Amino acid sequence: QVLLVESGGGLVQAGGSLRLSCAASGPTFTHYNMGWFRQAPGKERELVVAISKAGLRTYYADSVKGRCAISRANAENTVYLQMNSLKPEDTAVYYCAAQSRASAFTQFSQITEYAYWGQGTQVTVSS
What we know:
The protein is an all-beta fold. The protein is about 0% helix and about 45% strand. The strands form two sheets. Strands 2, 4, 5, 6, 9, 10 and 11 form a seven-stranded mixed β-sheet that branches. It is globular.
């Protein structure tokens, strides 16, 4: 029902910035809580940030607090992840994901609550 396409990844130097975009298909984008995950080689996929349906509530992992910001433009069916002061440990494939329509935002930390996933975009931060 929901197709997600990420873009904006790339190679940056430590301290640089990137803005990742996630474009969603369909007219019901506002029904879905959204999240950004990342997965580095040899590591489990982890939640980075999440945002509620109307954008009124957000979550930031401790590892990115103060450096990243999630936002959504519902009229454009797009969610963004602005990343600043990037570190080599931020290197990973970043995935956009949408919760099941019935999921409550309070379940944002449960990866099993995310029903739709994008293909991922690579972020590489050089030291």
